[in-house]
Amino acid sequence: MNCTSHEAPVSLVLEQDVPVRMTWNGQRFYVVGTAHPLDAMSKARKDSAYGEVTAWRFQATTAGGESHTFDIVSPGNARWNLGAVRP
After folding, report:
1. Alpha-carbon span 58 to 72, nearest angstrom
2. pLDDT of 21-68, one tens digit each?
3. pTM: predicted TM-score of the whole model, two decimal places
4. Sign of the C-alpha dihedral, residues 67, 63, 75, 40?
5. Which residues contact 57 (CB under 8 A, 6 or more apart)?
6. CB neighbour list of residue 80: distance below 8 Å, 6 or more residues apart
7. Mean pLDDT highest for which of 15-19, 47-51, 66-70, 71-75?
8. Are 87 and 1 in contact (CB under 8 A)?
9. Residue 54 and residue 35 in contact, taking contact as beta carbons nearer than 8 Å
């Protein structure tokens, strides 16, 4: 599986502190399944109480069917950047 690194800003919408949709590259993506918080080593954390999460991995799909797995990272101040995209 190819992985493309990015540092582009994205608009991330959270519900109950968990990502539900994102706008990237002019397209709206809807989170499919469960978004997983990532620790500094980019491995999924196993605790159920997320607390303050600074990175997420999730699969998301557009209304037109385009689907990717995204790594999203926060540099702080409620901003989010695209870390990586997998087809």
Report:
1. 8
2. 999 999 999 999 999 998 653 444 455 555 678 899 999 999 999 999
3. 0.81
4. negative
5. 35, 36, 38, 44, 69, 70, 71, 72
6. 9, 10, 11, 12, 22, 72, 73, 74
7. 66-70
8. yes
9. no
